[in-house]
Specification:
Elements: E1 6-9, H1 13-24, E2 29-32, H2 36-55, H3 61-69, E3 71-74, E4 85-88, H4 94-107, E5 113-116, H5 123-128, E6 136-141, E7 150-155, H6 161-173, E8 177-180, H7 189-205, H8 210-221, H9 227-234, H10 236-250, H11 259-266
Parallel strand pairs: 1-2, 1-4, 2-3, 4-5, 5-6, 7-8
Antiparallel strand pairs: 6-7
Helix pairs in contact: 1-2, 7-9, 7-10
Bound molecules: acetoacetyl-coenzyme A and nicotinamide-adenine-dinucleotide.
Acetoacetyl-coenzyme A (CAA) binds next to helix 1, helix 2, helix 7, helix 9 and helix 10.
Length: 286
């Protein structure tokens, strides 16, 4: 089946980058979120990034105009009914995701592939609430999606071979590199990366300055950004939900979320997206 039209659900950090990548690769995208503000902020962000690329002669103005014209924003979930591929990027909460998947599986055509961008929740459990578990699969993009090359492909227990092949081809068509993973909490990257970031937050709780931990890992391990800066960058709510997914999924205490991370989320200090996390940010996220 040829994928011609795509829907993205969620206009936060990930939905924005994924929409930019797919629209930029030439596909019409229906972009849905419950919040108009989030959709407008997302369009504004994509417009700014593309304008910067035009001014630096990385893309021409036609490409920018075409990319933006490929995107239609909506608050109406039923607008997704005629797409061939739907990608969900709403918060990391199994109940929220199951509710959306149950709804969209009744709205879309039987051939539509339903993708979750979950950071580590069970694809099998998300697929199980739908009318078409064979069409449900994980495709885990990384933040920021336009700059990160990898997409993890995660079939659930009921996902068909055709769905795995079709989504793998689509990921290559939009210029990313797929790797295939098994459906266990955190897949590959987050099972390794998120506990590292959580452990760095324990070190801050024990009294180390965030700047010190970050400098140590930038200079001593050549990480492009330190783990505390990375925590703020991806969002502390997403980080906590991913740690909790590992903890409950494996029932192993080595994945316990750091109490300081829990406290930050309780305070609404979610990192760059809320203006305050371990560091403070201006309205441009700098
Ligand atoms: N689209 C296109 N270009 C963009 C862009 C976008 N959305 N955002 C920024 N850019 C451009 C910038 O304008 C800049 O262009 P110029 O060089 O022409 O100025 C270029 O990309 C590089 O931007 P930066 O100067 O900000 O880049 P950097 O060298 O500091 O690298 C980074 C930024 C790639 C994010 C790097 O810091 C990095 O790799 N950080 C780690 C990211 C990471 O680990 N991500 C995974 C997080 S975990 C996850 O995603 C999984 C999960 O489930 C939580
Ligand atoms: P975010 O908080 O930035 O954005 C979530 C968006 O979902 C918001 O715009 C919100 O309005 C919208 N939303 C909430 N409920 C909705 C609903 N019922 N219907 C439609 N829209 C709804 O979150 P994010 O960082 O973009 O993460 C989204 C997903 O991607 C999560 O599962 C997360 O674990 C995963 N992920 C995140 C990252 C990251 O670095 N932040 C990386 C890879 C994967």
């Amino acid at each position: 089946m040829a994928i011609k039209k795509v829907a993205v659900i969620g206009a936060g950090l990930m939905g924005t980058g994924i929409t930019q990548v797919i629209a930029g690769a030439g596909f019409p995208v229906i972009w849905q979120d419950v919040s108009v503000q989030q959709l407008e902020n997302g369009m504004d962000r994509i417009e700014k990034v593309l304008s910067k690329q035009v001014s630096k002669q990385k893309i021409d103005n036609n490409h920018k105009v075409k990319t933006l014209s490929n995107i239609s924003i909506t608050q109406e979930l039923k607008a997704v009914s005629d797409v061939d591929l739907l990608i969900e990027a709403i918060p990391e909460d199994i109940n929220l995701k199951q509710t959306i998947f149950s709804q969209v599986s009744k709205l879309v055509q039987p051939n539509c592939i339903l993708v979750t961008n979950t950071s580590g929740l069970s694809i099998t459990a998300i697929a199980a609430v739908t009318t078409c578990p064979q069409k449900v699969i994980g495709a885990h993009f990384f933040y920021p999606a336009p700059l990160m090359g990898l997409v993890e492909i995660i079939p659930g227990l009921a996902t068909s071979k055709e769905t795995v092949e079709e989504i793998g081809q689509f990921i290559k068509d939009i210029g990313k590199t797929p790797v295939h993973c098994y459906d266990y909490p955190g897949f590959i990257v987050n099972r390794l990366l998120i506990p590292l970031v959580n452990e760095a937050i324990f070190m801050v709780m024990e009294g180390n300055a965030p700047e010190t931990v970050d400098a140590a890992m930038r200079l001593g391990a050549n990480h492009p950004m330190g783990p505390i800066a990375l925590a703020d960058y991806v969002g502390l709510d997403t980080l906590l939900a991913t740690m909790e997914g590992l903890y409950t999924g494996f029932k192993d205490p080595k994945y316990r979320p750091c109490p300081l991370l829990v406290k930050k989320v309780e305070a609404g200090h979610l990192g760059r997206k809320s203006g305050q996390g371990f560091y403070q940010y201006d309205t441009n996220g700098n």
